Amino acid sequence: MKFGYVRVAAAVPSVRVADCLYNAQQAEKLIAIAEGKGVQLIVFPELNLTGYACGDLFQQTLLQEQAEIALMQVMNNTRQLDIISILGMPVAVNGMLVNAAVVIQKGKMLGLVPKTYLPNYKEFYEQRWFAPSPTLPADATIRLCGQSVPVSPHLLFETSEVCFGVELCEDVWAPVPPSSYLALKGAEIIFNLSADTENIGKHQYLRSLLAQQSARCLAGYVFASSGFGESTTDVVFAGNALVYENGSLLAASDRFSFEEQLVISEIDVERLRQERIVNTTFAASARVHQNQLARRIQTELVPTKELSLTREVEPHPFVPDGGRLLDARCEEIFSIQVAGLAKRLVHTRCKTVVVGISGGLDSTLALLVCVKTFDKLGLPRKGIVGITMPGFGTTDRTYNNALSLMDSLLVSVKEISIKAACIQHFNDIGHDMSVHDVTYENGQARERTQILMDYANKVGGLVIGTGDLSELALGWATYNGDHMSMYGVNASIPKTLVRHLVAWVAQSGVDNRSRETLLDIIDTPISPELIPADEQGNIKQKTEDLVGPYELHDFFLYYFLRFGFRPSKIFYLAEKAFWGQYDRATLKKWLTNFCRRFFNQQFKRSCLPDGPKVGSVSLSPRGDWRMPSDASSALWLKECEELPAE
C-alpha cells in the first residue's frame, strides 16, 4: 500500500489439540481469506499446528512427524499466494525440541525462530518439553520438510517495504525481550506467536505490556494468541489478537469468541521510520547494542491491492474521544498552563497581570488560566486586570460577554476604546478609513497591544498572551500586535482544543453566571472583529471563511509537524478522516493554503514570547520548531498542485 502502510493480520483459528491435519486446514483457510483482503503478513498463535496444550504428547514422535507434514501441507496449498505467513510448531534442532515460529512464503520456508524464554508456571511446564533457544552458529540451518532453513532467534526478515522480526509469547515478558534487540537492528514490525492463558486482571496488564513494548521499540507489534478449541483442563485461552503501532492500539479481537477470528490493520512503517530518525535515544541505544547478533533474510513483500485503510483516522487528533478521557486531558492541559504561569509570576515577583479580553475563546481561556493561577498562589483576583478594547468591528454580543465574564470572575475590569486612537493614527499615516485592508485591520491590533503593554508598565504587571497554536501555524496574528506578549499561555494549544478546555472549565470550575457566559462564548463564531459588523449588528468577519476550517488546519498541522508527512499523504488521510464532510476540492484548497501560510509566516514564529508546552506538537523556536524564515515552500506547493480535485 502506498504511503508506507503494510497490511498485517493476527489470526485466531479454531484448533483441535494434537489434530495437526485439522489445524493445518484451519490455517490454510485463514491465510486464503487474509490474502483476499490484501494482507501482506499474517501471524498465528504459538504451536498452532499441534495446539499449545499437548503436554507430554509433544515428546511423541508421531505428533512431531505430523506437525512437519501439516507444515508441508500448508506450504503446498498456499504456494500460489504472495502473503507471508508465520506459523507455530515444535521442531527438532540439534537433538533438542524447540518451540518455534516458521516463516513461510510461496511454498518456501524463509526462516525458523526458536522461543528464547520458556515459562515454568503452575499451569504449563514448557521446560519439561522444550529446550530454550539453543546456542547456534550465526549461519546455522536445519533440514525441515525437505528444505534447508535458517534457524536463529536473531533473524531479521527484510523486504523492500518493511523489516520484521519474530518472538514467541514469554519472550515479551522478559526484562529485556528479544524484540528490543530486533528493533535496534532494524525490525519495524514484531510478530508474536502466543498461547496466553486468562487470569483476572492479566488481560489489561498484557495490553499495557504490548503497548509499552511497541512504544519503546518505536515499532508495530502484532500479537496472536490461542483461542477456543485449546484444552481447558486447567486454564482457558481467550483468543487475544492485538495490533499496536508505537504504543497505540489499532485493532483487537473479541475475547472469548467461539468463532475463528482474523484481526486486520495497517501499520504505518513510514511513520515509524520518521519517529526513529528524530528520536536520538533510539539511535543511541542502537549504537550501544551494535554488537548484538542479527541475521538478515532477504525476501519480497508484494504490494497489496489499492484498498482503503481499515484503521481509523481520527479527524480531531488533538482532541481525545470520550467524556472521561477528554475531561482528564483538559484537566492536565489546564494544570500545565497554570503551573507555567505560576512559575513565571513567582520568578518575577509579579502580582499583577494584564489580559486583553475580547469575548472570544482564546482570551477567555487565558483569563481562566490567570484566575486559577492567582487562586492557587493565594493572590487576590483584583490583581488580574482585564481590559476590553472595543473597536470598529466589536459586536454587542462579544462586548457584553467580555464585561459579564470579567465581572462574574471578580477580576479588575477596564474598558478602553481604540476608535479615537485608530482614527488619529490613520489620519497621521494618511490611510482612508473606508478601505478595510490589512493596514486597517493591523492598525487596530497593534493599538490594542500598545495599550496592554503600556498599561502593564503602569501597574507593574505582565501582559498575558492569548494567541493559540493554530493561529501561530497559519500566521493568523498581527506581527507585533496580538502576536506579542510577555508570556503566552495558549501558545501550544490548537484551536480545536481551546473550545473543549473552555467547556471543561465551564462545567467544573466556575459559578453559574460565569458558566452561562462561557457557554455563549463557545457558541460565538470565531472572529478577530476588525471589520465593522453587518446591518443587523452580527459578526461579519468570520475567520474560518477566510483561512479555512480550523478542524482541517489542526489535522494538517498534526501530521505535518508530528510525523513530517508530505502533502499527498496528509491529503490521503484527510479524505478518510473527513469522508462525507469535505470533498476533494475543499481539502486540496485548504491544504494548499496551509502549506503556503505555514512557510510564509515563519518569521512570526521565530520571535515568539515564552509559553508552556502542553503536547507533542509545538512551534516554539527555542525547542520544538526551527526553520529559516525564508525557507521555500515550492516542493510542498508543487505536490499540493498535483493532488486530485475530483
Mean pLDDT across residues: 93
Percentage of residues in DSSP E strands: 15-25%
The count of helical stretches stands at 21
Q: Biggest sheet, in brief?
A: 7 strands, mixed
**Apparent shape:** elongated
Total strand segments: 20
- Derived from helix and strand composition plus strand pairing, the structural class reads alpha/beta
Order of strands, main sheet, comes to: 13-12-11-10-9-8-15
**Helical fraction:** 25-40%
Write the topology of this structure.
Layout (H helix, E strand, L loop, with lengths): L4 E8 L7 H17 L4 E3 L17 H17 L6 E10 L2 E10 L2 E7 L11 H4 L11 E4 L2 E4 L4 E4 L4 E6 L9 H7 L4 E6 L7 H15 L3 E6 L15 E5 L2 E5 L8 E8 H10 L1 H9 L6 E4 L24 H26 L4 E4 L4 H17 L6 E5 L7 H13 L3 E4 L3 H11 L8 H22 L2 E4 L3 H6 L12 E2 L6 H14 L3 H11 L20 H5 L2 H14 L3 H11 L6 H17 L1 H4 L28 H8 L5
Parallel strand pairs: 1-2, 2-3, 8-15, 9-10, 10-11, 16-17, 16-19, 17-18, 19-20
Antiparallel strand pairs: 1-14, 3-4, 4-5, 6-7, 8-9, 11-12, 12-13
Structure description:
- With 646 residues, the chain is α/β, with parallel strands linked by helices.
- It is built from 21 helices and 20 strands.
- The chain has a seven-stranded mixed β-sheet with strand order 13-12-11-10-9-8-15, covered by helices on one side. The protein has a six-stranded mixed β-sheet with strand order 5-4-3-2-1-14.
- Helix 9 links the parallel strand 16 and strand 17.
- The longest helix is centred in the middle third of the chain and has 26 residues.
- The radius of gyration is 30 Å and the shape is elongated.
- The protein starts with a strand and ends in a 5-residue tail after the last helix.
- The mean pLDDT is 93.
